[in-house]
Amino acid sequence: MNAIDKIKEIIPSLNDDQIEAITTTDGPLLIIAGPGTGKTLTLVARTLYLLISEKAQPDEIILTTFTEKAAYELRDRISQLARKINYQGQLHLIKMGTIHSLCNEYIMKFLSYTPLKRGYSVLEELTQIFFIYENFDEVMIKRDGKFLGKWAKKWRAIKEVVPYLNKITEEMIDISKLEDSNDEFLMALAGCYKAYCQKLFETNRVDFAHLLKIFYELLCNEKVYRKIKSKIRYIMVDEYQDTNYIQEQILLKLASPENNICVVGDEDQSLYRFRGATVRNILEFPKHFKNCKQIKLTINYRSHKKIIEKYNKFITSIDWNGFRYPKEIKPDPSAEFPEYPAVFCIWGRDEKDEAKRVVQLIKFLKNKKIIEDWSDVSILLKSVKSEHSSHYINALKDDNIPYFSPRAKKYFENTEVKLLIACYSIIFGFYGDILKEYPHREYIEESIKLLPKNINQALKDYLRRKVRQIENLKTGSLDLTILDYFYQLLAYQPFSAFLKDKNKAYNLSIFSKLLSVFMDYYDISLVTAKNKEFIKNYLFGSFLNFLMQTGIDEYEDPYNPIPKGFVQIMTIHQAKGLEFPVVLVGSLHKKFAVQKQVDRDLLPFSKRGTFETEEQMTKFDRLRHYYVAFSRAQKLLVLTTPEKPQDWFSTIWEGLDQYPYVEKETLQVQKFQSKPQFVPKKSYSLSNINVYETCPQQYLFYKEYEFQPSRSAQVLFGSLVHHTIEDIHRAVLDRKSFTTQDIENWFEQNYKALLLSGLRPISKTQKEVALKQVINYFNQNQDILERISETEVEVSVEKEDYIITGKIDLLMSKDGKFEILDFKTQPKQEKNPELIDKYFKQLCLYAYILKERYNKPVEKIYIYWTSEEKRKDALMEMKYSEKDIEAAWNYFDEVVKKIKSENFRVNIPPDTEKVCKECDFRFYCSQNGIIKFKTKELEEV
What we know:
Layout: H1 3-10, H2 16-23, E1 29-33, H3 39-52, E2 61-65, H4 68-84, E3 95-98, H5 99-109, E4 121-123, H6 125-134, H7 136-139, E5 142-143, E6 146-147, H8 154-170, H9 175-179, H10 184-202, E7 205-207, H11 208-219, H12 222-229, E8 234-237, H13 245-255, E9 261-265, H14 280-284, E10 293-297, E11 299-300, H15 305-315, E12 330-331, E13 343-347, H16 351-367, E14 377-381, H17 386-398, E15 403-404, H18 415-428, H19 441-454, H20 457-471, E16 477-481, H21 482-489, H22 495-498, H23 502-521, E17 526-528, H24 532-550, E18 567-571, H25 572-575, E19 580-585, H26 597-602, H27 614-630, E20 633-641, H28 650-653, H29 664-667, E21 682-685, H30 686-694, H31 696-704, H32 716-733, H33 740-756, H34 764-780, H35 782-786, E22 788-798, E23 802-814, E24 817-824, H36 833-854, E25 858-865, H37 871-874, E26 875-878, H38 882-900, H39 912-916, H40 922-927, H41 936-940
Parallel strand pairs: 1-9, 1-10, 2-3, 2-8, 4-7, 8-9, 11-12, 13-20, 14-18, 14-19, 15-18, 19-20, 21-23, 24-25
Antiparallel strand pairs: 5-6, 16-17, 22-23, 23-24, 25-26
Helix pairs in contact: 2-3, 3-4, 5-11, 6-8, 8-11, 11-13, 15-27, 16-17, 18-19, 18-20, 30-31, 32-33, 32-34, 36-38
């Protein structure tokens, strides 16, 4: 049986266009995939076809998509189908993820060729803003009393300049052209960009746009390019309509010269212009090649035919003038479509009346059992901020219908958050007259008013002690960080009770991250006599003020994005890639604006110039936006508005029946079943499993809820030794000649990089000891260096319902057999058999994974104790057998089962001196009887 027949056997539903897309493998291919046409299935099957037809090995395939969630879905579906056809290859070697994660992976591998150092941090949306704030005076030039001559207020300037900085990088704009532009704003912007980039690399940070730029620069290095390219045969790119210029350049460079590149997307569903994406990439893709094949997937397996008919009419209601691939989406020819009103509208007298009718419809669907669960209904809006969503939320609340809208920017409205902010207001004295001019005065006062009925005497006494402590601080410092107060508060009711509620615990975790960002970007460590006023003024007056104005999203569980039992309220962007039995689309009366100023200013300087006119941008984007919304509906599409919709909805709106005046008789006999939502397999790293073994509560708080530690738990000493030994290994692999002086230079560079990452410095004596360990290793192990095969090897193994990941410090090869070496910076632990056994099980698992991956046995496994002066004491060989591997598997399997079943009870309390002493939750655990740990510090709390 040939490869395509094997695939058709396990996916008999494949249509002719899908089969052609799967089997067209060589040369450039553009797949235009309309909504609901099975593009994910096609990509999965195409990947398997490449593998089972032996056109490529797993590590020769790149598969990128727009979101991590989509990447997880591809990974798990490929794995599922591979098992069905008994494919035995190493699927985890497929380079699969977002383009940014792919770039990050290669940057870490070829770090020495970049301006970054080990341990660099990647700025996301919020931290990029605070990075500019931290370096504001050096980055933002003031002219005529305004920043860059354009913005009067600091926070406004920061928010407005970010899209400009990102666009310059993403469009690969030559800064000298801006400097020579004779436009005062653009010349100032050029200076701002140069200063911003300099600060990024000085502080070992990188934003998302620079991840792309640095990787592109790696590809321009001939030596690095050859190494990367040698392992790439086929490239597949999902959601190509949402890529930007530099991403296009990266992908084309990776594909050249064979050009075995397949891009999949739909220009009608391009939504991310505001993030720098351009539909131009997909529209002009064929122009890059002489022989680009095009395949259109147009059979929709998602929606009722009446819904498809309506959104087809909507998207073709304007003249696209060559900015769209002509196509018509068709319903599944093998499906039966029952006769009922599948598309209708709601038109309220005002917002309150509209929302009331929406709720009446939802209740009707649920009461008549047309839908099975509240989560079968999604309300899609242009924005879910209060002015767009509050009338729906209030109407649902009035009828006790649960709803879920984590991106409504209502984080600060949660009781647990209000109480925390109230406590911080009391501790740092941010109340009373100081609030007179404060924009969020009412919020602070209301939060403080909540305290008396929510806190007990113990917490009142704690607050008094802390207030007195700060008031009496005249010189020196307290041994307390801003986050320390947070963890002390968690020991008291009601906060300790909130930790037992998953949603509230996640909200508390978000607060810990925000405080950590404040400490990092405002350069605050301990509370001192000198900075206590600064903390009060800037924590509230600047930091929280900005966050409250912009709003913060609540927690979303990546493993349960559409929780059962809740009506979903989401943005149209959020709904991309999702589908629901019932979709209500609102915001139809709102104006639709497209951000054009950044493009207007910068695109004339880009390598390609402008594309659409400004009028076309608005006209095209609003249709694409709502086309995505309408095409999410499986069984029922409802357009809802409190006013006359905008004129450009006329082709879909006109002639619609109005609820409740629809054929309820045919509707109420329907039974809408939702498709099971995809839930990605969860990954568990061996280091995280070790945390669970040490203390299940620590695992729950730090790994599940992701609370941010108050002080870095990571010890600089161990990282410094590890990183410098890795530098030695990489130099050997790169065949570089080096001396002891080079090692000392790497050591100093690593030390500086670790300090920049927030780790606490070590003493001069400790530093000398760390360097001695590295030099000792180098001098005594030339035979090991000669056998190096790989360093820092990422490994993973997939089980039925989870994935285990780990990292091998050093892989050596001798006589066609492998040896594994793991470094430990502590002295040899001969008198600690439990710890040795833990390390042994980990190494056994690594040995199993490597044998499966390379089909080569691992002959020896070692631990190297770098604290030991002599090699004979440092190098510890551990004998293992197949039985040991089986025992290790069973052990880790049992631990993961406990984690998956949410068994976080502490049955045997950990060593309080070694484990609890530095743990932020020692106050909580002590107060709640989890541990018996008495110190002066705990008594004072």
